[in-house]
Known about the structure:
This protein has helices spanning 22-36, 53-56, 83-95, 115-118, 136-151, 155-169, 186-191, 219-225, 253-266, 271-274, 285-295, 331-344; strands at 4-11, 46-50, 75-79, 102-109, 194-196, 199-200, 209-218, 230-239, 277-279, 357-364, 370-378. By secondary structure, the protein is an alpha/beta fold. The chain has a domain at 4-112 and 207-225: Thiolase/Chalcone synthase (Peroxisomal Thiolase, Chain A, domain 1). The strands form two sheets. A nine-stranded mixed sheet has the order 3-2-4-7-1-8-11-10-9. The protein has a two-stranded antiparallel ribbon with strand order 5-6. A hairpin with a 5-residue loop joins strand 10 and strand 11. Helix 3 crosses helix 12, helix 6 crosses helix 11 (285-295) and helix 9 (253-266) crosses helix 11. The two termini are 20 Å apart.
Amino acid sequence: MEKVGIVGYNQVKLYSDANYGRYEMIFEAVRGALDSAGLKKKDITTVVSATNDYYDGRTISNALTVEPGGGYLADESKVEMDGAHAVLYGLMRILSGNHKLAVVWGGSMASSFPYHTARLYETDPIWERPLAYVNDITSAGFQMRAYMEKFGVSAEDIAKIAVKNRKNAAKNQLALVEAQNPNLTVKDVLESEIYADPVTELMVAQPCDGVAALLLAPEKQALKITDNPVWVIGVGYNQETYYLGERDLSSSKSMELASKMAFNAAGVKNPLSEIDVAELFEAYAHEELILSEAIGFTEKGKGASLSSEIGGDMPINPSGGALGGNPPCATGLIRIIEAVKQLRGEANGYQVKGAEKAIASGQIGLCAQNNILYVLEGGN
Length: 380
């Protein structure tokens, strides 16, 4: 089977409240991705967007994004999930043999809609939604508490992840300014406002405004476009049960199964020794530990002992991760782009030396109900 390569990308800088329109932001992301690969609008054969009707405030919300997203006179459709899931759809379209260049873009403007209210539609409509006691905020507290109590992990261990990622974000010019803090301490994190006990505000990936785009092409076409493609060599995805009460929130079964699927496809036997860098969608600081354990970097409950800084045993989220900015529908897509940067040696200011193989993940649902994981390899 012909390989699929990532041949271009672009991300708009993240803002807590962007000072320009969403359609301009979409155009900038897609146009920039094409420019990065030296391509034109006419080269596009299919466009896959990642948006959400609830976030956009109308049905068929991609109807008005076709033109700025490059879909005019091209095959076009939408994935109402994370941008990383839209990449899977684009990957399938390329592998079908019907398309030579897929544009995948995702993003939203969290400043213009009630993000947490919209996410109530992820809960049970009969018992949970009317009272709103179970929601994306409170479920994060359930998840962190379950993890801490089962494995004896301290709040300080989790706060260290928030410190690491926000310090990393300070090196990333595209990260959310409010998320960047090179002087942050564990004490600062623990003493920030309570979000949902024991989660504090600085442990949370703040929803923000942003759009990102990348380009996919089949192997022969990819090699014509660039001499430095990044190959998608494995992908896996899985979803857990709908009800929180039926899940073990201290771990991530969906990520365990997704990573097994992705590593089998990529031929990865020992992820800790074979993967050079990881970009994981951690909606909360504690999720980075849970997900890294599910992937197999370390035993369950031992994620805090893993050296995940740049230059460590397994650099995780050198870009700052989702804690560096969390634009709904774009966050997982940005994780893939950041992994691509590492493999192409383009992560200025936070480059992991000698990165040749990377993973990147996306998620949706309460407590990372659905996970998707990519294994990527540099072209050189």
